[in-house]
Design goal:
heterodimer; A: 545 residues; alpha+beta; two-stranded antiparallel ribbon; 15 strands; 36% helix; 12% strand; B: 256 residues; mainly alpha; Fumarate Reductase Cytochrome B subunit; 10 helices; globular
């Protein structure tokens, strides 16, 4: 047994209102730069829908993740080392920019500077790739709230697996939001696909990162990831991905997406797992067994043998304590209500989801029945096979049983807690129906519904004695391309040494603080400005120049 | 021996080699972040899907041919039964095939670079200079093969160019060997030298990143936080040692 720690996340989809705050704050923090205009480390998809990039879940087409070979051993679905290198000059499975969307801005300058005329001036959309006028036809959340989904919904790879009548009825039946970040898998196929060895899983906390200095732009990680959560920066020619906000995690702060989530639906914490058991668990034959296999890889942090092995493996004492207090462990193993996203990809993803009950409640309420009555809800869960089948395609490789159980627990919690708060009546028959005790149910309620900050986020800071090593680590994505704020290096826009965050901040602060007069009138499109360099006309001339 | 011959066939190649080697070391030392293929596949794939493999597999064949023709003395090949006639046939026809593949691939790639908007915008000045010299080197090499080998009487460069290169490698230059060489071969060699001198400052550096270690490493890579600093990306510069608590006197060396 080799105990390792993994920083992971659970999202409670019941509470997601699809506001995209996580996406926007993440973008501001990480991908607000040229070259990654089209990149959303965090995106929110409306399901059913085609996702971002379009139809990424169709692994017959994109061939990401792992599969089993004839001898029942794991292999990369798109082929092993030889096949990868034979396709290195042109990766046939790489999504093109149009599979994401062509990034654009608007010619806002037109609104200010056009001469007076008969018609109101309009800001025409301009492509950020070519600079030319473009027609906007797709984006990262084009089918938000099922918008236009009559046109596109039949492209949803999950619906394609379901029957025709289901497809026709779907839109009436069910809709929910799915926020997605990198899964920071235990068995990451992007890492396995990287020819340069630039991608790695951090031994301390399991965060999967790209070493920007070692990446050579072979693009195999992008096609290797079944979730399509590694992106190619077309300006620097390097891969970039969700970093799990490691600079924040290292000092005990939650990720930006979690911190800013208005629904407070994200949970962060450590789990301990047995690294030696990962490969065996990822290669169980029946896809329906993958969920249990992955649960089995996670180790009980209260088990003395595990604690002993964790100490022997060099995991610090406060990290073990954090793993014991981890909301992730509770949601995955104690309550068994959190489920992984697409376990059938065999990457052992570590961002899990609590499936949404609210659509079921809505159906019950809309029929005029009591949406908080346990029997009504249980009956509805039994009857609503369509949404359950769809959720099962997402979270349990098509096996409805785990989704069913998870929703039943949520339904039981709902009606049990109504009894508690309305009449102080604790009806244990409800909790027993889902195999839980009353106090356990109240604990779960506290974690899910009250969701206190310090219970949602149990993040042990990285160790002080290591702190100097963590500062400004090399794989950070926080530089745009050129050295300093000056722009390009000698060999093109991406060359030159990487610039520490502090230096970059220094320059931008200096720019801001010395700009005490309005800038000279010029044609600057602020939305085209990536925050680097000093475009002409943006800042007033410095005094003394 | 004329001065121009010495300049062209001794000074230029050695200077190019020096720039090539030192340039790569410096670039790797100071610009790891810029060391990439700078792929433009996300912009456009229809033309690249054909052009890029054609060019790259072609150029690999071309390189293999040059190694056999230039670096291996012909007596060694005679010894394993490859006589002048067999060699000439093989070199000419396989070489021509490789050249056609490479040049056709390059033409597709340059056409793509010029006509596809985003790809053209992502082209740096250095890329353009590189394309000129790469195209010239390939063009003169192909011309030399066509003019002298395919349609001409055949020129035995293994009596002049090959020994000249081997003499250069052992630092005993014989520039006179190159003086009588036909013009297109001379131009091919000269532009190649210039290309080598440019090499470390272009995206061509990605040639030295050929991911051979991928065959030998385990699929999943783990790195420790400490390692990722040391293996590094950002080396600790002199005078910027991290601040650490001083060791109390007498305890030095005892803990760790």
């Amino acid at each position: 047994m080799k105990v390792m720690a993994q920083m992971s996340m659970v999202m409670n989809l019941d509470k997601c209102i699809g506001c995209h705050t996580c996406s926007v704050t993440c973008k501001q923090a990480w991908t607000n730069r040229t070259g990654v205009e089209y990149v959303w480390f965090n995106n929110v998809e409306t399901r059913p829908g085609v996702g971002y990039p379009r139809t990424y879940e169709d692994q017959e087409k994109w061939r990401g993740g792992w599969t089993l070979n004839k001898r029942g051993r794991l292999k990369l679905r798109d082929g092993g080392r030889f096949k990868k290198l034979s396709r290195i000059f042109s990766n046939p499975k790489l999504p093109e920019i149009h599979d994401y969307y062509e990034p654009w801005t608007y010619d806002y300058d037109m609104l200010l500077n056009s001469p007076s005329g008969e018609h109101t001036p309009v800001a025409t959309p301009k492509s950020l790739l070519t600079g030319k006028d473009m027609k906007i036809g797709w984006s990262a959340n084009w089918d938000d709230n099922l918008g236009g989904s009559l046109e596109t919904m039949d492209q949803d790879p999950l619906l394609a697996k379901m029957s025709e009548e289901v497809k026709a009825e779907y839109e009436k039946a069910f809709m929910f939001y799915l926020p997605r970040i990198c899964e920071h898998c235990l068995n990451p196929s992007c890492v396995a696909s990287c020819p340069s060895g630039a991608m790695y899983k951090r031994a301390e906390d399991g965060i999967v990162l790209v070493d920007q200095d070692a990446c050579r732009g072979w693009r195999m990680c992008v096609s290797g990831c079944p979730y399509k959560k590694v992106y190619f920066n077309h300006r620097t020619g390097k891969a970039e991905k969700c970093t799990f906000c490691y600079p924040r995690i290292e000092v005990g702060l939650p990720t930006v997406c979690a911190e800013t989530c208005v629904g407070r639906l994200r949970y962060l914490g450590l789990v301990l797992y047995d690294a030696d058991a990962v490969a065996a668990a990822a290669s169980v034959e029946d896809e329906h067994d993958l969920l249990d296999a992955q649960r089995g890889v996670l180790l009980d942090p209260h088990d003395p043998a595990v604690i002993e092995a964790a100490r022997a493996g060099g995991i610090p004492e406060d990290w073990i304590e954090s793993a014991q207090a981890s909301p992730i462990w509770k949601l995955i193993r104690d309550y068994e209500i959190a489920l992984p996203l697409h376990p059938e990809y065999r990457t052992m993803p570590m961002v899990w989801y609590i499936p949404p009950l609210s659509p079921v409640v809505d159906v019950v309420t809309n029929t005029g029945n009591d949406g908080e009555d346990a029997d009504n809800l249980f009956a509805a869960i039994d009857k609503l096979r369509i949404p359950i089948g769809y959720l099962a395609e997402l979270f349990s490789a098509g096996d409805p049983a785990p989704v069913d159980l998870s929703l039943r627990k949520l339904a039981a919690m709902r009606s049990y807690m109504r009894g508690v708060s309305m009449s102080d009546h604790r009806d244990e028959s409800i909790t027993e129906a889902v195999g839980m005790s009353g106090p356990q149910m109240e604990e779960m309620y506290r974690l899910l519904a009250i969701a206190k900050y310090e219970e949602r986020y149990v993040i042990p800071p990285a160790h002080a004695e290591q702190a100097h090593d963590l500062e400004e680590m090399g794989c950070s994505l926080d530089f745009e391309g050129g050295p300093g704020m000056g722009g390009a290096g000698p060999f093109g826009s991406s060359s030159g040494e990487s610039v520490p965050v502090a230096v970059e901040n220094f320059h931008s602060l200096k720019n801001r603080q010395t700009s005490d007069r309005p800038s000279s009138p010029g044609r600057v499109n602020l939305l085209n400005w990536d925050g680097n360099g000093t475009p002409e006309g943006l800042f007033p001339p410095e005094d003394g120049k | 021996m004329s001065t121009s011959a010495i300049l062209l066939w001794v000074v230029l190649p050695y200077a190019a080699a020096a720039v090539f080697i030192v340039g790569h070391i410096l670039r790797y030392r100071y610009d790891k972040f810029g060391w990439t293929t700078r792929s433009s596949q996300t912009y456009e794939n229809r033309l690249l899907r054909w052009g890029s493999p054609m060019f790259h597999f072609g150029i690999l064949m071309v390189i293999a041919g040059h190694v056999v023709g230039l670096l291996i003395p012909r007596q060694w090949l005679y010894a394993i039964g490859i006589n002048e006639h067999i060699y000439h046939l093989g070199a000419t026809w396989m070489g021509t095939a490789a050249a056609i593949l490479t040049v056709a691939g390059l033409i597709i790639l340059i056409y793509r670079r010029r006509t596809v908007g985003p790809v053209f915008l992502a082209t740096t000045a250095m890329d353009k200079v590189m394309y000129v010299f790469l195209g010239a080197t390939l063009g003169f090499g192909t011309l030399a093969t066509l003019v002298y080998q395919v349609f001409g009487p055949g020129y035995s460069y293994r009596e002049s160019i090959s020994p000249w290169i081997r003499q250069m490698i052992i630092f005993q230059p014989h520039p006179e060997m190159m003086v009588e060489v036909p013009l297109f071969f001379q131009l091919h060699v000269a532009t190649a030298c210039a290309l080598f001198a440019l090499w470390p400052f272009t995206r061509l550096v990605h040639v030295f990143s050929a991911p051979i270690p991928y065959f030998f490493r385990p699929y999943i890579v783990y790195r420790s936080r400490d390692e990722s600093r040391g293996a590094g990306s950002r080396p600790v510069r002199r005078g910027w040692d991290p601040v650490a608590a001083p060791q109390p006197r007498g305890k030095r060396g005892s803990n760790r």
